[in-house]
Amino acid sequence: MDDGPNPSSGVITPVRGVVVAAVATLVATTAAALPGDLVAGEVAVLRWANDLPRGVGAPMQLVMHLGASLGALVVVAVAALARRWRLAAAALVGLLVARLVAGGLKVAVDRARPPALLADVVVRQHLPADPGFPSAHAAVAAALAVVAGWEAPRLRIPLAALAVAIGLARLYVGVHLPLDVLGGWALGVLAGLAAVTVVHPRVPPHPGPAPWSGSTVPRSRRP
Question: How far is residue 106 from each of residues 34, 99, 133, 150, 182, measured CA to CA in Å?
């Protein structure tokens, strides 16, 4: 069976590596979250993020809303208004996949939110009633970062940084544990790549660095 572009082109192989890493991370975090107990290191990371100075945490809390469904739909609408139809479609697919799978995992894993497991957690927003694992905000943010980074490879680093900031913001506001966010990021990467697979061609739309790798796509040469 034809496997698409030659892996030596630097396009397919790095993406497969990302898929393997994301699947492994999602499986590992889900398995660790199932017992419902805190995992080693979670308390220290949560305390660090939850105690960030307001000058650092407040801006992250502001951009955190891009990981919510409404924020993601705004991104889809802006892309559509700019006639970036593939970006709008892929962002919408990524949002739906991330939200639906996150919702299913929340029910299956049923992990408590931080205040139920730790004392003195500062909660800076309304505490959601649903279970904590995985973080849907982190999943949606990562999915949008993958989709937009595929369309605009030069922006993939700031987009990834934005997704990281949104995940850390969920710790800062005290509504998620680190494992929730890590699992959400992994799920979001897979949701974003699924959306790209459905909407985009298998080769990046513009010549230049292949998404998620440092390699380049060779330009065609005229005879």
Answer: 10, 10, 5, 28, 14
Q: How far apart are CA 6 and CA 204, in angstroms?
A: 14
- pLDDT tens by residue, 103-126: 999 999 999 999 999 989 999 999
Q: Answer yes or no: are the C-beta atoms of 193 and 23 closer than 8 Å.
A: no
Q: Which DSSP string corresponds to 95-136?
A: HHHHHHHHHHHHHHH-PPPHHHH-SS----SPPPSS--SSPH
The pTM for the full model equals 0.83
Closest CA to 113 of 98, 99, 127, 124: 127
Say whether the peptide bond before residue 59 is cis (omega within 30 degrees of 0): no
Buried b (16+ CB within 10 A) or exposed e, 186-219: bbbbbbbbbbbeebbeeebeeeebbbbbeeebee
